[in-house]
Amino acid sequence: MKFFIDTANLEHIREAQDLGILDGVTTNPSLMAKEGIFGKDQVLRHYKAICDIVDGDVSAEVIATDLAGMIREGEELAELDEKIVVKIPMIKDGIKALKYFSDRGIKTNCTLVFSAGQALLAAKAGATYVSPFVGRLDDISFDGIELIEQIRLIYDNYEFDTQILAASVRHSMHIIKCAEAGSDVMTGPLSAILALLKHPLTDSGLATFLADHAKGTQK
Ligand code: G3P
Question: How far, in Å, is the centroid of ligand 1 from the Cα of 169?
Fold first, then answer.
């Protein structure tokens, strides 16, 4: 399973990249706003800065919601760097935009997906990635992981090339459950990735090993 980091924070992206396990980055307008990145020029510069750090795909979201606007913005984003994946919302004109970019070999990520039917449409339109929002479904008492399982079954039935990118991943258990469900990619915050490291028996075991080793060096 590929690991993407879901942030526009350059320090977090650097830390994940330095760990050697990062396969890409996803962003959205809210994550950009959280870092104080506003206005077209600043946003484009920030995407370029992210691309310069990470060794993998970088999702950059269009703001337009009409077909012509999404095409215009998407083409501009795609020209920034070959790592850019144009992120398109799951709306009617978004489906047309996915098809437009797919026909031209430009990578896409269909975002704001909350049902199997939406995921089926995104795959039919040739999306490179589909982003079901696991955490936001859990927030409203729907099982986000069950949606990943459902999409996996449908995509496997018809050998769709679209990759399932589990988004809105909030914690380490989401990551493990996404891996069990066969998600191709998960995107989550640095805290969820680092939490995978933790186990009290690792910490106590290491402390014992180091203490026993120290006994030998004292003789
Ligand atoms: O990038 C989209 C998604 O990952 C947002 O996550 O935590 O705001 O639901 P969240």
Answer: 7
